[in-house]
Design brief:
It is built from six helices and no strands. The protein is globular and about 40 Å long. The chain is mainly α and 143 residues long.
Amino acid sequence: MLNPSVVQDDRPARLQGFSAETDRTRLSRTALKAYRRLAEQWDLTGQQAAALLGVSMSTWERLKPETVEKTLTQDQMTRISALTGIYKALHLLFADQMADRWLQLENTGPLFDRLTPVAAMIEGGIPHMLEVRRYLDAVRGGL
């Protein structure tokens, strides 16, 4: 039974997006923290971490320290969101060690064309990151 003292709002809930700067400002610190951990867990080189985030090496070096706070762009937030989904899917599919190694292993699947998933995602950008995420979700039965 609904509590009559609580006003019900019939408007649909607003989907979380990354276009509003207020949202990006609120989420950037956590997103950067998560990305730093992913880069470490996946044993990414500085060049790989920068490329996946869509920034230069010098910008990545400035973003690496935990004390750095910066509002990320919509593009950067989208990249981190996709990569976080990939991390989660991999850890649902594999034991931790294999989940973290998978991205660095040559892959003969049609999405990868004998590249490592990291190299394929760097080459293909956000669209490819989203494809990899959908692929992993499908493999684990999420689609």
